[in-house]
Specification:
single chain; about 260 residues; alpha/beta; five-stranded mixed beta barrel; 4 helices; 8 strands; Surf1/Surf4; transmembrane helix; membrane; transmembrane
Amino acid sequence: MYRFLLSRQWVTLTLLTLLLIPVMVRLGYWQLHRHEHRVAQNELISRTLAAKPVPAEKLTSPGREVPRRDLYRQVTAEGTFDTAHEVVVRRRTNGDDEVGFHVLTPFLLKDGRALLVNRGWIPADGPQTAFPEIPAPPRGEITVSGRLMPDESTAASGIKNVKGLPDRQIMLISSRAEARSLGREVLGGYVQQTAPEPRGDSPQLLPAPDHSSIGPHMAYAIQWWLFAAAVPVGWVVLVRRERRDRTGPQEAAPEAEKAPAPA
């Protein structure tokens, strides 16, 4: 009755079914882990944003990587902006997906070290071959506040570190690279400025990260598991249909023989 399961077609279909089930289960767990990572990330951001601001020197130092626990931590620094060594970060967007630059300005601390400060976003008007016009920051000694961020990398951001760019333009923010350019010690990571607010709203300060959404990963995980459960059900349905199609005519033939001949 079920000898057709030994045919090449059905053996292939059965093996494919057995392969799809663990693959789909695995994909479901992958989405579950992404959901758990998103939830943990949101909790971390919420906790660090709510923490009391501390001096940047307490959380980072030259050559040091900003630890994950201090991501988005509110920090302060006292010093002066060094606009002579200001650079712009290419291909950055604002909230409306407009392409422009991030303005990265060294902030010289009282002890001679520097802290990189991302002062915000400006639009890219015209060709991006020349250094854009940037509103100047406050002069003299001031206190800057912002969110502490780690150095950027291609692996983490997906942004390729293109070489041969126009003067004073970069693709990724790296405290080590800027230290070589400045010829002085630079604290690891950088700061997304939140205060003081720029005059004329330019550069545009970067918004705080959204930590209210958990994304669709849990829904995707459930979908993959439902697919995994549906695969064997579908296999059984196909087997029963094939059996019915194969045995139906044979069962109908004896019935036809027993039927009385017409008068």
